[in-house]
Amino acid sequence: MPLAGAGWVVVTGLLARDELLSAQRALDSLRQQTAARPAAEASAGDAGPVRQRTDTAVRAAAAHAARAHRLTTGPAWYSAAYLPVLGGPLRTVRGAAEAADRLTRDVLSPLAESVSQLTSDSAKDRGPLSLSALRRAAPALDRASHSASDVRDEVDELPRKTWLPAVDRARAQLAEQLDRIVPATADAAAAARVMPAMLGERGSRRYVVVFENTAEARGTGGLPGAFAVLTADRGRLAFERFGNDTEMANAVAAVDLGDEYDALHGHNAPTTTWVNSNVSPHFPYAARIWTAAWRDHTGQKVDGALALDPSVLSGLLTASGPARLPDGTAVTAANVVDLTERSSYVDYPDTEERKEFFLDVARAAADRLLGAADDPQRRPALFAALSGQLREGRVKVWSAHPSEQRELRRRPFGGTLPDTSDPFAGLVVNNAAGNKLDYYLDRRLEWAPGRCVAAGREVTVTVSLTNRAPRSGLPTYVNQRLDAPPYRTRPGDNRLLVSYYASKGAKLATAALDGRPVLVNQAVERGHPVHTLDLELPAGVTRTLVLRLVESSSDRPVSLLRQPLVRPLRVTVRPYPPCGD
Fold first, then answer.
1. Cα–Cα distances in Å, from 485 out to 312, 434, 436?
2. How far apart are CA 219 and CA 495, in angstroms?
3. DSSP of 385-428
4. What's the predicted TM-score (pTM) here?
5. How many CA atoms lie within 13 A of 494 on its CB side?
6. Dihedral sign, CA of 124, 125, 126, 132?
7. Which residues, listed in sequence order, are joined to residue 207 by a DSSP beta bridge?
């Protein structure tokens, strides 16, 4: 009888493996098709087949996963899975099959059905997104989000290291997939709860949209340059005006952000100097300043604020297709960052002409994107691109309505410094020279936990900054230094305020710049210790800051703040060594 049971486990295990592989292939095929063809199919008016393929792939994956789960249940599997030592891989296979079944049945299927219903309702007439359909989808999306989180917890409890490496790798791959799915489903559920109201379901809404110029770094990304006022009325979006930072130069934001904020950022006059209004990486601070400044400037109260940059426009124009400027110039996914953050300084040496060019780009891109948003055929591709930008935190959103802001602040696009005491690492640079040389800035961050000590765990943070600006050929405006340093500089040299935001409760032990001890300014923002260095960064030079800290003992994954600039932050996170090593 034991031999028969072992044979049954082997045979059904092999069959279950084939079913799980088939489920994986169905989902991989869907992902590849979605990534490769959305823009082309949208322009061809082919949204129906896209939905059909999605439904077919999800149903096929669910069927395969359900069969794998059935094959790994029953007395033989239960008994074998709990054998000492030998049962580890079987328990993992059994748990993974159950997790895959729940994932496809309780998470992916409701998500696909909700998306299909939203697309269908909105396609009945060429118009805005169906807000009533979105609100009706909220309960199903909430259930899917909770199910995804539960499945992730169950996979976490499965054996991580057994005597069968292939099973361990499969469990790790499933965990990685869930690491992507869980936040995505949470974002979808949150969107269904707040988007109807934010898009004007019960009355018109108005938002300040700020376009950040990442060629000159600020805490939330780039310098706040051009802006627009966006209206939302029953799901239909429109821009009622555009402007630039010159218009807001004398606006005053009557907001009190607290003594802690004033101590760290007050010397930059962020509430009275528009271009310094977002020196903090905590986006709600910038949003509150922007909305208060707008009310001071116009007397108009707005419902919130959004921030985006040319890299965001690049991602969205990939889905919508190119925009056209009044002179016929194409603004595309491939050239919008270069047009607005490099070549415009060559083509438009006159400041006013250049600012008008920025507004032309903003208007053209806005018209193109709003046209795609109103087109049910193009909308799925555009929303998929927008979702990606939101998950990456490149688009940031703040609402003046407290119930909505409570939802937004928990999402990546809320742009908030975390309230938890979990490990955290945030590299933030603010341009201190007044130039546009951050277009050429490379950033690297290494976070390396070390041994445990009486006060917690040692952590070594290594920050490397490289200025890749050319020493010749750049326009004067790009190179200009408004800081008037008391030392000699050359064209292409930059200066940055480099801040490292550590985990709550972290204590700095030592700091070194290029191998030599250095003093850093120490402050606190929202409970996070902030260590800041005023750094001259000559062209062609790499400078390295090493901070040694003691943080609370933890083995939880470190959360990262990725300040969106032209060149992405490159991060290395070292694994936790056992305490005592």
1. 34, 12, 17
2. 15
3. HHHHHHHTTSSEEEESSHHHHHHHTTSGGG-PPP-S-S-EEEEE
4. 0.90
5. 31
6. negative
7. 230, 304
CA dihedral (57, 61, 64, 65) in degrees, to 10, reads: -170
**Per-residue tens of pLDDT for the chain, all 581 residues:** 455 656 667 778 678 778 877 877 777 766 665 544 444 443 444 455 656 777 788 888 888 888 888 888 878 887 877 888 778 888 988 999 999 999 999 998 888 888 777 766 655 545 577 888 889 899 999 999 999 999 999 999 999 888 888 888 888 888 888 888 898 899 889 989 999 999 999 999 999 999 999 999 999 999 999 999 999 999 999 999 999 999 999 999 999 999 999 999 999 999 999 999 999 999 999 999 999 999 999 999 999 999 999 999 999 999 999 999 999 999 999 999 999 999 999 999 999 999 999 999 999 999 999 999 888 878 888 988 998 899 888 999 999 999 999 999 999 999 999 999 999 999 999 999 999 999 999 999 999 999 999 999 999 999 999 999 999 999 999 999 999 899 999 999 999 999 999 999 999 999 999 999 999 999 999 999 999 999 999 999 999 999 999 999 998 999 999 999 999 999 999 999 988 55
